[in-house]
Amino acid sequence: MIEAEWWDYDDADEFAEAVAGDVGFIIESALDARGQALIALPGGKTPLPIYEKLAKAKINWKNVTIIPTDDRLVPLTDALSNTAMLAKIFLPKGARVLPVTTDKAADHHMAGKAADARLQDLHWPPDLVWLGMGADGHTASIFDGPDLQEALDAPKARRMVGVMPDPMPKDAAVARVTLTKAAILSARAITIVLTGDEKRALLEKAIEDGHSSKLPIGRVLADAEQAIDIHWAA
Ligand SMILES: O=C(O)[C@H](O)[C@@H](O)[C@H](O)[C@H](O)COP(=O)(O)O
């Protein structure tokens, strides 16, 4: 049984304030306990106003490492780069934002291996993995397609893999690297942040279906052992 706690908000500002406060608290607690924090943050549009608020928090950002939960295989100068988006917001605060993509990989499988190698140097597990969800039920870049099973079944030690979504998402039709299911579920805390009635219904069903879910997010969450906080606004 997936243990999920839903937090609902009436307006966008309250939503952003609450999620930023929650994530700030997770970071502060990690800094208190271990002197450093590692958090994985998604791309997409939903988190942007929340990131802006979070970046204003009085946190010792110098001891915070941020990785993208997934990234698109594009140069860092491309508007689709999740790392570039995160860097723009959090680098000026002093956080370390770690790129996981490389221009040199021959294909998405090699890019996945390179991303994984980069993450192997980090102090694991992440204090937080923050997930978004697409209208097709993908999370991070765990999409339907030929690489879905590898992302779901990769062994515990494997942190990232390369993914070629099929069908391709229209808003960012490119190959990706993504945290594996095992890497996501290794996190000390998992938070899902989403908006809209349609996505809510989809996620509720995915959680209910668990292992038999047809959606990547349902399959990922089915084995979660930690309680999951879901922040939702209409
Ligand atoms: O594509 C990415 O980079 C994401 O990490 C992805 O998993 C995202 O979180 C969802 O697609 C939701 O995106 P929105 O917030 O834009 O709906």
Number of helices: 8
Order of helices and strands: EHEHEEHEHEHEEHEHHE
Largest sheet: 7 strands, parallel
Radius of gyration: 16 Å
Q: What name does the CATH topology carry? A: Rossmann fold
Q: Provide the spatial order of strands within the biggest beta sheet.
A: 1-10-9-6-2-3-5
Task: State the main characteristics.
seven-stranded parallel beta sheet; globular; alpha/beta; 234 residues; binds 6-phosphogluconic acid; Rossmann fold; 8 helices; 19% strand
Explain what the structure shows.
This protein has 234 residues and is α/β, with parallel strands linked by helices. The chain has one domain (4-233): Rossmann fold. Helix content is 35%, strand content 19%. The chain contains eight helices and ten strands. The protein has helices at 12-34, 48-55, 82-90, 108-120, 148-153, 181-185, 197-209, 216-221, and strands at 4-9, 37-41, 64-68, 70-72, 96-97, 128-131, 160-163, 176-179, 190-195, 228-233. Strands 1-10-9-6-2-3-5 form a seven-stranded parallel β-sheet, with helices on both faces. Strands 4-8-7 form a three-stranded antiparallel β-sheet. Helix 1 (12-34) packs across helix 2 (48-55). It is globular. The two termini are 26 Å apart. The mean pLDDT is 97. Bound molecules: 6-phosphogluconic acid.
